[in-house]
Each structure stands twice: as structure tokens, then as C-alpha cells.
Amino acid sequence: LDDEGRGGRNQTEMIGPKGPIFETAKIAGIMGAKKTSDLIPLCHPLPLDRVNITIRLVNNTAVIECECTVTHKTGVEMEALTGASIAALTIYDMVKAVSHGVEIGRTVLVGKSGGKSDYVREDDGSVGG
């Protein structure tokens, strides 16, 4: 991806041969979060109130954060993890024409509240963290 025209990029978006990479990944991640119960056996379908996906570049690494909320008596960590994973897979799909050397790194739960218990990761789950 170059710095101008169709291969251009800025701080919030990168454009590849298939179009806007991060915006496409965000849409796919939202769709993935909403379809979690179809993808993960025995995962209950939940009426998500909100799915927010942010993608930022840190040292040439796309860092994806997916936050889900629901008004229900269970947590939504599986939906958030699925949303982030689908967004990462979409980024790979969008850039594989340029390079197959892209790696999908670790996926971690940073925190959750609700359900049987709350959880906060001791490190923040960030790149290098």
C-alpha cells in the first residue's frame, strides 16, 4: 500500500485493492458479533444493544478492539472476541493480494462486567503488553 491514490492511507483508514480496509473490517466485525451464536456451538443468541469496533495502527500493527453491550443476565465476551476475530480475518482478506505475510496476533479479553462475574485483565492486552 503506498501513500497516495488507491493505495493511500491516513491515520484512520487504509485503502487496498478491494477498497477501504478498516471500514470493511468494522462492518464484518459487527456482523460477526451479531452472528456469534451461529458460529460457536452452545453459545446463546443475545440481543446486542451495541457493538463498537475500533481499529488503530500501532507500529504497523492493526490493533482491533471490540466492545459489546447487552441488557441481559449474561456476559458478551464471546460476541466481543468473535467480532474482533472476524475483523482481523477481514483485514487479512483485504490485504492478501498485496502480501500473504500478514499475521493475526493474539486475541485477548481485556475486561467484562456482568454475567456470573466481572473480569479485568491485569495487563491491558495491548501490543507488546
Structural description of this entry:
This protein has 129 residues and is α+β, with helices and mostly antiparallel strands. The chain has helices at residues 21-34, 36-39, 77-95, and strands spanning 15-16, 19-20, 50-58, 61-69, 111-112, 119-120. The strands form 3 sheets. A two-stranded antiparallel ribbon has the order 1-2. A two-stranded antiparallel ribbon has the order 3-4. Strand 1 (15-16) and strand 2 (19-20) form a beta hairpin. Helix 1 packs antiparallel against helix 3. The longest helix has 19 residues, at 77-95. Residues 1-10 have low confidence and may be disordered.
Keyword list:
two-stranded antiparallel sheet, 3 helices, alpha+beta, 29% helix, 129 residues, disordered N terminus, 6 strands
Strand content: 15-25%
Shape: globular
Mean pLDDT: 84
Order of helices and strands: EEHHEEHEE
In terms of per-residue confidence, which ranges show pLDDT below 50 for 5 or more consecutive residues? 1-10
